[in-house]
Recover the amino acids of this structure.
């Protein structure tokens, strides 16, 4: 009898402590520094530190998704970062637009991983990199879908990407403006969302605002065009109202990104800023209610 009573007490004490511990860990957003094991989270988004460029890894319980592939000088780093995550297959590769700092690592991604499906903005350009990208896709016979506003891409486990841009006719008319016709998509997982903007600038922001400003509202924002002055317009930020902005960029880059006026706007709107040049890879995890942002350094 005594032994049973002792065990009952132990169970009660352990349960109470577990409840207190769990209450302390949920219900609010958190920011952490240093490496954190994100395995097991239903949703992980890594804004990879690829210097000046974009490469964003999204993992749901069911799928591995890569948005852009960084620039050519960072391609080896990109491949080793993906391999370090134990990745062998990329279910969906999304190329926001065909500039070098977004497609530079694509050829190496095709060489090292099985890519099951590509989503592309449908914009063409004359660069060698773009030609190589298309050639590889054709050679490997990878299914290729041109996306436009209104489409939804399923990422598994209740996670979806709502495509908000581009739309045809493309901005810029006969000579499309590659940045402004970037794929912009809102990732939604239950109550959590992040707006992925590629290099969309104010013309694209304006078009999306006119069409449906309410849909832009997101928990987090991946800053458009590496935090340039031509993106993150005041009206756009007002519609998105993110709690934090994540900027993907290289240290001391030649474009002087991010622009001080953009950082000022974030500060005025009390939007926290995370940037890969100083913080390294940024890891966002979410359970659909709350989220945590972890800095690599
Ligand atoms: Zn770019």
């Amino acid at each position: 009898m005594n032994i049973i009573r002792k065990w009952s007490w132990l169970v009660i004490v352990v349960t109470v402590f577990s409840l207190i511990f769990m209450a302390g860990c949920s219900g609010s957003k958190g920011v952490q520094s240093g490496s954190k094991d994100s395995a097991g989270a239903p949703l992980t988004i890594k804004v990879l530190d690829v210097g000046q460029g974009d490469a964003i890894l999204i993992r749901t319980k069911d799928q591995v998704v890569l948005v852009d592939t960084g620039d050519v000088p960072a391609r080896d780093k990109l491949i080793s970062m993906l391999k370090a995550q134990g990745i062998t297959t990329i279910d969906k590769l999304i190329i926001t637009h065909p500039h070098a700092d977004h497609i530079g690592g694509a050829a190496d991604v095709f060489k090292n991983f099985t890519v099951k499906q590509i989503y592309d903005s449908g914009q063409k350009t004359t660069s060698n990199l773009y030609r190589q990208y298309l050639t590889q896709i054709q050679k490997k016979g990878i299914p290729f879908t041109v996306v436009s506003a209104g489409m939804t891409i399923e990422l598994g486990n209740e996670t979806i990407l709502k495509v908000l841009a581009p739309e045809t006719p493309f901005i810029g008319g006969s000579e499309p403006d590659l940045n402004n016709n970037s794929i912009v998509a809102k990732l939604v997982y239950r109550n959590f969302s992040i707006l992925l903007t590629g290099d969309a600038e104010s013309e694209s922001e304006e078009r999306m605002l006119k069409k449906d400003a309410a849909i832009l509202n997101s928990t987090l924002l991946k800053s458009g065009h590496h935090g340039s002055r031509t993106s993150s317009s005041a009206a756009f930020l007002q519609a998105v109202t993110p709690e934090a902005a994540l900027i993907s960029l290289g240290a001391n880059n030649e474009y002087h990104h991010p622009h001080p006026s953009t950082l000022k706007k974030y500060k005025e709107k009390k939007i926290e800023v995370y940037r890969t040049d100083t913080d390294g890879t940024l890891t966002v995890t979410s359970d659909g209610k709350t989220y945590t942002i972890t800095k690599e350094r």
